[in-house]
Amino acid sequence: MFVPCEVLFVGGLGNMICFEDAVEAKFLDSKKIDLESIFEEEFIIQNPDKDVVDSLLKDLNQSKREKLDLDNIFPVELSGVEYFSVFDMEDGDYIAIDKMKSVFRLKHDSDFPVKKIFQSIDDFLNRFSGDKEELERFFQDDFD
Question: What pLDDT is attached to residue 12?
Fold first, then answer.
């Protein structure tokens, strides 16, 4: 039986992400897939939160921007304030900024998850070399 469906592959790696028409992969016979009408379409995934952070950081030079993780920005709302991740500590904790460009540490397993560590992103980047180990002190329990 022939069932037309759309399949999305990401990155040219052959990773099947989803089926457009609810056809389950376990029912497909890979030897009978007709590729005659296959076409490639590129699309850009836009992150609106990255746009917000880009506008906040527009005055930073490239060397300062390279110290941050600007490819994986996402918002976190805590106590009615929105923070944007700019550096992933890779353990559930983040360095983040608010819309006033102050810098905070966001600690996921703390009674005090948000703590301002620098008044401005400029102050932070003037002191931060880009080495993640420098930031560990902000996440220690005895940090004041």
Answer: 53
Q: Which amino acid is at 53?
A: V
Name the token pair of 95: 């360095």
Q: What is the pLDDT of residues 94-114, one digit of tens each?
A: 999 999 999 999 998 888 899
Judged by DSSP in three states, 85 sits in strand
- Here the tokens at position 49 are 């939160």
Comparing C-alpha atoms, which of 115, 77, 69 is closest to residue 99? 77
10 CB contacts (<8 Å, ≥6 apart)?
17
Return the CA Rg of the chain. Answer: 22
Confidence of residue 129 (pLDDT cuts 50, 70, 90): very high
Beta-bridge partner residues of 16 = 9
- 0.85 cut: is pTM over it? no
Q: Which two tokens stand for residue 80?
A: 């009615």
Give CA separation, 119 vs 11, 40, 86, in Å: 40, 47, 15
Phi-psi domain of 70 (left: phi exceeds 0; alpha: psi -120 through 50; beta: other): alpha
